[in-house]
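Sharing in case it's useful to others searching the archive later.

Someone asked me privately for the predicted structure of ATP-dependent 6-phosphofructokinase, so I'm posting the question and my answer publicly. Question first, with the sequence:
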Amino acid sequence: MRIGILTGGGDAPGLNAVIRAAVLKGEKDADTEFVGFIDGWEGVFNENFTPLFRNDVRGIGRLGGTILGTSRTNPIKDFGGPDRIATVFERNRIDAIMVIGGEGTLAGGHELAKLGFPVIGVPKTIDNDISGTDYTFGFDTAVQIATDAMDRLRTTGESHRRCMVAEVMGRHAGWIALHSGIAAGAHAILIPERKTSIEQIGEWVLSATNRGRSALVVVSEGFGLDTMNDPFSIKGLDSVGRPRLGGIGEMLAPLIEAHTGIETRGTTLGHIQRGGTPTANDRVLATRYGMAALDLAKQGKWDHMVALRGTEMCVVPLEEAVGQLKSVPDHRYDEAAVLFG
Ligand code: F6P
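And my answer, the predicted structure tokens:
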């Protein structure tokens, strides 16, 4: 069996560990070989791929990024679409394609599988917002990086008696903010799932300050302010409480300062959260995903992805994984909110 493997969408620490594990396990079977497509679906359209043998993946499990490169090329809409993919697969004897990606990439894979393509999915995102799996690799690393950064913000914040705002990734879901905020002992955690007013944020900041603490606020990039009571009081917001220009962290810092009188600084962590070496947990999860994905391909379980439920690997139809992102449930936010302020 000749399996193509590609990485699509934004990178996440652990991608290389998936590739390595699949190739190593595949080499144990005399009849399995891998080729890696370069830059996601773009590599398929351009027939740009490289053979992947044991030597090609040596030592990559601990490397961040993806040795194959990635892109947001869409397999249905871009270039020649499914017809071109079918030609490339036939000409190069590709029996299955292992697609490692986030919701967008998996949705593209699902569309292709509906057309009869032999697609296996591996869920990936630092945001941890893919439905059907408890965790995606990359998340643990991003949370660790954000936590380390906030520990650093605490010492400078305390020295200057300032409130510090850290903006973390999470366009649609607040998992990184929730977990890093709990770990760093943040006084407020602001996530896209829960609109919060500037008055409430100010109360948490003042309550921490009044106890002699320098407040730490963590905010997901996708958070929107609750302006229900006074929609016109804050300039520069759109109809869902998001800044028209710039990032939310950048916008919140002066707003908190104006509401509390406490000097406030904002820091956006950005792509630092996606870079560098994966944590041990992410390496383990990614390795298990890579091996489980090979098993799916060998069983011909197309249109499915591997997933983690509790501590066990399982199999989820791609249809269940795409279409709806996994949000932070209310009870998880409320549990953390007990410690705010
Ligand atoms: O989906 C993962 C993610 O890291 C989001 O949290 C973030 O909004 C986005 O990717 C950034 O994407 P890009 O690298 O294309 O700017």
